[in-house]
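Data deposition worksheet. Section B asks for the primary sequence of the deposited chain exactly as it was used as input, without tags or linkers unless they were present during the calculation. Section C holds the resulting structure in token form. Section D is free text for depositor observations; keep each observation to a single sentence. Incomplete worksheets are returned to the depositor.
Section A, Depositor: J.P.
Section B:
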Amino acid sequence: MRKIKIIVVHGYTATANSNFFPALKAELENENVEVQVLNLPNSMHPVFEDWINYLAKEIPHYDENTIFVGHSLGCVSILNFLQKKEIKIRGLYLVSGFVEEVPIPELEPFVKPKIDYAKIMKIAFIRVVYSAKDDYIIPYKLTEKMAEKLRARFILLEEGKHFKDRDGFTKFPLLERMIRANCEDTMEMLLE
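Section C:
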């Protein structure tokens, strides 16, 4: 039986050890689920091509048992990466992301490529997007726009800010529960 693989892509100024990522890995990883939290290059001054090339190198194989989790800049990076192939995935969970516009000028190159939303919808069976009303980095309206473009389920929390550890956000129980439910559904299908 093949394992479910969860791939976590962090955002701007973050690392694999930032925010809610270590807790997510600790909560979800088990004998049937592998969690890989990537450490993208030069996150303080990210370069679009470097990030996409890194994703291609670190994720040479993925399939219908793969779940992608993105945070902030990691969301649009995942979308740009996924649209290059016709490979179906199990789920896409995007936190405080954006497409087409971003309030941080340094990140403009990440929103320049046109996203093929129809293709993403075709390859990602489950699409869930999270934001918080008090997000002070990426206004929730930008994340809501991303959810609309992807026809994703949009979950707007009253608070959570930008889901960063510096704001005391080191665990994301709602995200953990939703991914766990997805993994359990997948395991049941694999056992049938």
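Section D:
Residues 4-191 form a domain with the Rossmann fold fold (CATH 3.40.50.1820).
Confidence is low (pLDDT under 50) at residues 187-192.
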